[in-house]
Amino acid sequence: MSQQNSNRGTLPQVFKEESSIPDNYKITEIHQREYLLNGELVPWNGPVTNIYSPVCIPTANGFEKKLLGSIPNTTPKESLEALDAAVAAYNNGLGEWPTMSVEGRIKCMQKFVYLMIQQRELVIKLLMWEIGKTLADATKEFDRTVEYINFTIDALKDLDRESSHFQQAEGTIAQIRRAPLGVVLSMGPFNYPLNEIFTTLIPALIMGNTILFKLPKFGVLCHYPLLNAFKEAFPKGTVNTLYGKGSEIISPIMESGKVNVLAFIGSSKVANGLKKLHPKVNRLRAILSLDAKNAAIVTKNANIDVAVNECILGALSFNGQRCTALKLIFVQREIAAEFTEKLSAAVSAMKPGLPWEAGVKITPLPEDNKPAYLKACIDDAISKGAKVMNENGGFQEGSFVFPAVVFPVNEQMKLYHEEQFGPIVPVVPFDSIDEPVNYQVNATHGMQVSIFSEDAKEVASLIDPFVNLVSRVNINCQAQRSPDVFPFTGRKDSAEGTLSVFDALRSFSIRSLVAAKLTESNKTLLNTIVRSHDSNFLSTDYIF
């Protein structure tokens, strides 16, 4: 990988000699030769895929991505073996895991968290090297994931407490609880390779489902230190890992019809293709987090400094590689020049560098084709009348791209419609507030919007239409997923199902009940079962 753009300007050198990397951030190559199948770490002697870091090393031939290690490149044969293991572990709902008491599953999850925390330092280091996440963000991702698991455990306790009694209606007595759905195929993205996939995998698992865990294309090695934790904490076959090309190993799994839930975070095109492969669509539940091009609307009544700061956080946190990122900024024409000037100055001041360097905000990109794609988006906008407003905007070197503020963007440009998923900030001037509203009406997505205004009547007039167009309206702040106890979903092609600590438990389960006529003999029968603890489902135990 060689230098692509020599117009460095005032930017410092991002990539440095390997010898200059501090010892505590250096990485030893990890060549993974095993995968988790049916409760065992099975040796792999077949073909492998090399894993390269977005961090480049200067060489005589230009910049070259550092080799981090390799992973198994398994085949459809191994993926179907994993499917068989998950199906057998579920055993039509009769397996050890789905029939285990809620308290028993919680204890297993607590053991997993304990073992996971032992690998914290290595996982954080791998997040930096594999996807270019800053030390602060990588640390936050790990710690937030542990927190999410603990919140999920607490939420399940609350849910179970609500169900730990019998209900009576119209001469019938019943106990209503939530039961698992079956085999879950969990697939996550590279941008949050730990946190995002765990927001589906963990609730699906703790509700009693068995798991097929497809590792992301980037950020795959960071899961390797956790395989033993899965192995030790859960019954065999409960969690099984999948490696290799998704188009090759996932298709036969879906075509089998044995997957009950598809938990997928990625593009709507891929999700639609996967769902179509399933021969029994009515038996497949889909929990999806998909495309988004979240807009910000900055009116003439906004606090411009607040809007600039929040838009930078929303547009450029982790280089803009977030589904919740602000990917299009509408600014009322009266303040467009002032806003764009302040935004451009603030973006130009952002520190580029390697993930572990203090104060770094912009880091290298993991996707090989991303720099070229971003350049094509910028070139398209320039050819149609826009300009790059900030110093060094769009500068590329190896896998590194410095953010570009592009203005004025209009609906003729790719940046207006396509989800750039990278460090470009398109700014669209508008005259009438109907323009950003109509944009959202006609958009194929509907995840979030951010409204910046200090005028209460104006904000109120925008809240009412947007709550019916997107799933979250942010007032004077960036779009984001957190807090995890809030619902996370989307309209149109942006999502299917709702993920939050509470909603996810419901998404990966179904209400099930045991009912009987309210007779003396039935009351005696049910009381006997409860007192003898012969049923894990029919129970009035209260989990503390």
UniProtKB/TrEMBL annotation:
SUPFAM superfamilies: ALDH-like (SSF53720). This is NADP-dependent glyceraldehyde-3-phosphate dehydrogenase. It comes from the Bacteria. Belongs to the aldehyde dehydrogenase family. Residues 57-508 form the Aldehyde dehydrogenase domain. It comes from Niastella soli. The keyword Oxidoreductase applies. It holds the Pfam family Aldedh. PROSITE patterns: ALDEHYDE_DEHYDR_CYS. Keywords: Oxidoreductase. CDD domains: ALDH_F11_NP-GAPDH (cd07082). PANTHER family: SUCCINATE-SEMIALDEHYDE DEHYDROGENASE, MITOCHONDRIAL.
